[in-house]
């Protein structure tokens, strides 16, 4: 793509190919890649076996699946085939599959594409609910409604590879007004911003980009001041505990998940990460040293030898290659057994092709003059078996 750069998590550089990055994040595709002939429960259990391995008990996985489905409002659809779900329910199921490993960061590619207005609102509300539980949600979205647009906390707008605005959604309209771009009260701010991006209001985008960069640095300076103020208040352990209690943003539903040990955010760690987020989210130029936060008695994980986020993930080994093979083979058997028409069509096609081949090469014999015919027969038979076996994979790959 010609795009280069460095990825930072809490101010620490990390490689996208590293196992730690894969544990910390997940990517949810725009298209829901689900097996239509498997129920929600079977799909979730298969994902749990693959991600958590067999060192984790089946009872734990079942309880975890029930609580995740209850969190996403899918518990009443446990025995429903994925192919019979609505668009919004399929999107929620795709999110539920990734929540099994509890990644702190979720990347979504246009999660509202193909959904009606009601399903869009439910999907974004779900993402906002997950954000309140401590997850970081990053998603791309095009032309959201005013209601959906207000649900987002921060906005990053890109035009031709350059940023024309980054910051809180609530500050977008005042920022545009400061650039002599007044958004009418009856107009959707998201639509107005897109109109500005395509040049409908005769605005020089270069000046807008420079204004966005200026705002970015001003916000960074203000955040640095807030960091120093907060730092001065956590010099003692008592103050740290008090601030941690004020910074907790976890609703009652969090107690359902933390009871299973696969998410255990410590209160003191939340306070520490709040300081780090103030420091890193807006790109402040002066970083806090570890010794500055020694007042917070936290147990810190590691990412590439550095501190990770405040999340304590369940450390389990994924299923081995052999177990993955048998799990996926069992999935194929389940789908083939339930799709009677496809199974019958494959059997009939093999029988018909076998009869045709048998008729064409009947009584050929094993003489030297028929060697080429026998060779063509064997070659065609092998190709038939190989390509018919791979055809299902080729047709379903995207």
Automatic annotation (TrEMBL):
Organism: Bactrocera latifrons (Malaysian fruit fly)
Domain ABC transporter family G: 142-205
Bilayer-crossing regions: 340-362, 374-397
GO molecular function, one term: ABC-type transporter activity
Keyword ATP-binding appears in the UniProt entry: yes
Domain ABC-2 type transporter transmembrane: 324-394
Matching Pfam families: ABC2_membrane, ABC2_membrane_7, ABC_tran
Gene3D superfamilies reported for this sequence: P-loop containing nucleotide triphosphate hydrolases (3.40.50.300)
GO cellular component: plasma membrane
UniProt protein name: ATP-binding cassette sub-family G member 1
Cellular compartments annotated: Membrane
Sequence similarity: Belongs to the ABC transporter superfamily. ABCG family. Eye pigment precursor importer (TC 3.A.1.204) subfamily.
Location of the ABC transporter domain: 4-113
Membrane topology: Multi-pass membrane protein
